[in-house]
Amino acid sequence: MSSDRVGSLVAWLRDRGERVTTARRALLTALDQAGDHRSADELAEAVSREHPEVHRATIYRTLETLRRLEVVEHTHLGHGPAVYHLAGEVHQHLVCEECGAIQEVPASVLGDLEADLERDFGFRLNSRHFAVVGRCRHCRHGPGDGIVEDRRG
Fold it and tell me: What is the rounded distance in angstroms from the CA atom of residue 72 to the CA atom of residue 9?
């Protein structure tokens, strides 16, 4: 992603009659530069380094506004705080509860479950809001699973 993306998002906001404030532009830039999922606190710190006049509370409100406008998505990756990223290609997160590794996978991996829940219970799952927690391939083959693996190198 690049500053072109930030410029496009700013233009998109203006086209919809949304205000483009210093805080919004700074937050979009911080999300762009992060290149990964960041907590609200991490984003507030990044914005504060460049724009100390932007208050932390403003960052939280701006994140919520950008989430409502579907410019930003947030997800819960386990027991920590929610993390944010610019909306883009829809994906699901797999989080290893042992080592903390995060893997992004296509959203379609939960397609059958979503269809079953809708058909059988009339329930529409918002799977992007949370991570699927389990054990990664590496941790699954550790002690306790009956598979001995040499991890010395």
Answer: 11
- In the three-class reduction of DSSP (H, G, I as helix; E, B as strand; rest coil), residue 17 is classed as coil
Q: Do 32 and 3 meet the contact criterion of CB atoms below 8 Å apart?
A: yes
Q: Per CATH, is 91-140 categorized as 3.30.1490.190?
A: yes
Q: What angle do CA 34, 97, 82 make, to 5 degrees?
A: 40
What pLDDT score was predicted for residue 153? 38
pLDDT mean for each 10 residues of the chain (153 residues): 80 94 94 88 95 94 93 83 83 87 85 92 85 89 51 37
Closest CA to 133 of 86, 80, 87: 80
CATH number of 3-86: 1.10.10.10
* pLDDT at residue number 149: 41
Q: Kindly list the strands in the beta sheet with 38-39, ordered across the sheet, starting from the edge strand earlier in the chain.
A: 38-39, 83-86, 72-75
| Single-letter amino acid code for the residue at 53 | E
